[in-house]
User: Fold this.
Amino acid sequence: MKIILLADVKKVGKKDQIIEVSDGYAKNFLIAKKLAVPVTATSKAVLQKQQDDEAARQAKLKQEALELATKLKGITLEFAVQSGKEGKMFGNISLKQVADELEAKHRIVIDKRKFVDKGSLDFLGYHHPKIELYKGVIGEVNVHIVSKGE
Assistant:
């Protein structure tokens, strides 16, 4: 019997996949537990519509990520930190601080886990941490760390 899976099933297939399984397994387990539906013209049309909607949603998300990437290029965040002789910083600037500053000053919410460069910014000057905004879309924010004037 041909069925469309409604959820991932171990050792059987992934969601939205059309597969062939035995009649008993399909009727008594997969369909009974609402893990699958039989393949009909209606179920194929519903599956196609869901896939089209998801593709449109993903395209919209990618476009928003591209717009955000260009917006981030024009932003420079400035942090003033304590430093000793020869410009050696006391402490560092974490990527969470960068994300918090973006949210506070520019209302751009970025999860700190989206930063590609892990670690912290630990020397004076300009830094350009990269952020994965979407699959394959990398944004970059400018961070300028300066010494506090004393």
Notes: The first strand starts at residue 2 and ends at 5.
